[in-house]
Design goal:
Blueprint (H helix, E strand, L loop, with lengths): L21 E10 L2 E11 L4 E5 L6 H9 L6 E6 L2 E2 L10 E4 L11 H11 L4 H14 L15 H13 L5 E5 L7 H18 L2 E6 L2 H7 L2 E6 L2 E6 L1 H6 L4 H6 L4 E11 L2 E6 L4 E5 L10 E6 L5 E3 L9 E11 L3 E8 L4 E7 L14 E5 L6 E3 L2
Parallel strand pairs: 3-8, 3-9, 6-7, 7-8
Antiparallel strand pairs: 1-2, 1-4, 4-5, 9-10, 11-12, 11-14, 12-13, 14-20, 15-19, 16-17, 16-19, 17-18
Length: 379
């Protein structure tokens, strides 16, 4: 994923000389008294696959529809390729939109569905045939060109909808929950196909999704939305490893969060006491706060090691009893009850087939993690 974001530097958002392809400035959208999008500012760069991630009602689809011109902002500005979109109607914007429902014409064949927009634009018949053929090759649907939508699987219909959106060669493709109608296995397969198509064409994609795994797999960067605002922007790794708030930490993957009070705050470490953990927790990065301040420590389940024997390192060490076990094949999930009653989730890889000595229900265990594994959160 490091090669995404071309042209220019692999990560143009880190280059101060790079110009954003999309600039959103203080965007607001109200429906009566309800504010769906609340003062959003955002820059997206050419060639990115940028995901807007959030739960239902957070404003992500409304933001996408304003980019497309299907909703008029209450206030704020949208620039695409340095052009103010305020007075540009949807059909004149360098964008196309792929809807969650796919919206295919049931009476048309695959190739006619794909060609429809080109015919509406008055493109020459020979050029239409050439472009439809090229895009069918790209999405691997040429053998199905004469079929109608009801003769296709869900994944095939998704490819036709994508082809129809791409055949007009937009500079910006907007995708609203593009894989939401697919089953889990097909969705995972299609994610990589979508990434490959985007990289081949070099088109900027903006994807709306509520699926955290989908956003993590697809994206150059993710904007996490909550209550009409973007609360954090970053690469998938940044969002996962360094969430800015408890809301982001909880929304992206599983996490254990311990409330605590700061005992020591130095430039290179933080020491705090957590009543929930009944322990002092040590984190090897500093924060700006006063001793006694209330903060939270987030630790991902896969960062925690569970063992029947006490580890040599005494920092970040807890004791508990395994109350639940789930065998997932590649890993096992343990719910461990601490002496305080708090439940801690631990995931550990199943590296050997043998079940001998594997942790199980009612085992007394020690939990530990490295000082680099925790993240201190202020809110």
């Amino acid at each position: 994923m490091s090669e995404k974001g071309k042209p220019g530097s692999p990560e143009p958002w880190r280059d101060k000389s790079s110009k954003p392809y999309i600039r959103i400035e203080h965007l607001v959208k109200k429906f009566g008294e309800f504010t769906a999008v609340n003062d959003v500012s955002l820059s997206i760069y050419k060639g990115e696959l940028f995901s807007l991630l959030g739960g239902s009602g957070c404003g992500k689809t409304t933001l996408l529809r304003m980019l497309a011109g299907l909703e008029i902002p209450t206030s704020g500005k949208i620039f695409i390729d340095d052009v103010d979109m305020a007075t540009v109607p949807p059909y004149e914007r360098p964008t196309n939109m792929m809807f969650q429902s796919y919206a295919l014409f049931p009476h048309m064949t695959v190739e006619k569905n794909i060609a429809f927009g080109l015919k509406q634009d008055g493109i020459a018949r020979s050029l239409i045939a050439e472009r439809v053929s090229d895009i069918l090759d790209l999405v691997q649907m040429k053998p199905y060109a004469k079929r109608k939508p009801h003769q296709l699987s869900g994944g095939q219909r998704q490819r036709v909808a994508l082809a129809r959106a791409l055949v007009k060669r937009p500079k910006l493709l907007l995708l609203d929950e593009p894989l939401g109608a697919l089953d889990k296995r097909l969705r995972e397969q299609t994610q990589f196909e979508l990434m490959n198509i985007q990289e081949k064409l070099g088109i900027t994609f903006v994807v709306v999704t509520h699926d955290q795994e989908e956003a993590m797999t697809l994206s150059t960067r993710i904007g996490v939305m909550n209550a009409g605002q973007i609360v954090q922007i970053g690469t998938p790794q940044e969002i996962y490893e360094f969430p800015g708030t408890r809301m982001v930490a909880n929304f992206i993957g599983s996490v254990n969060i311990f409330a605590g009070r700061v005992i020591e705050d130095e430039p290179d470490y933080v020491l705090l006491h957590s009543d929930e953990a009944n322990a002092d927790l040590y984190i090897s990065h500093g924060i700006a706060c006063a001793p006694g301040a209330e903060v939270w420590v987030a630790v991902r389940p896969e960062k925690i090691v569970a063992s029947r024997t006490a580890p040599a390192e005494t920092r970040n060490q807890l004791k508990g009893i395994i109350k639940e076990v789930a065998y997932m094949g590649n890993l096992s999930v343990y719910l461990v009850k601490l002496e305080t009653g708090k439940i801690v989730k631990v995931t550990m890889p199943n590296q050997v087939r043998s079940s001998e000595n594997r942790l199980t229900w009612d085992d007394h265990v020690y939990l530990s993690w490295l000082s680099t594994s925790g993240v201190v959160l202020h809110s």
